[in-house]
Amino acid sequence: MERLVAKRDERRDGFAKVIRKAMGTSLGDKVDEVLKVLSQRGITRAVSKEALESAQRSGRFTVFSLVDALTRISGRMKFAGERTDADAKASALLALAV
Fold first, then answer.
1. Domain segments of the chain: what residues?
2. Distance between CA 31 and CA 33 in Å, rounded?
C-alpha cells in the first residue's frame, strides 16, 4: 500500500512540476511566432487564432494559457472524435514545457 501511495505522490508531483513550468514557458512574444508553433503542431489557423485571443487576455502566450484556451475550445466542439483529437493536440503542447 505504501508503494502505491508513493507512486501516486510521485506522479502528482511530476504533473505539478510540468504545469508550473508550462505557466512560465512562453511560446513567443508575437502572434505570428505563436501561430507558427501551433500550426507546426497540427492546430488549425482558425482554432489557433481563437486560442491566441483567449491567451492574450491572460497577458502572455504561455504554454499553459494556450493549452487552457485550446481545451476550452475543444469542449465546445460537437463531435467526440473532434474533441479527442483537439485535446490530444493541446496536451501535446505541454511537452514544450518539459
1. 2-97
2. 5
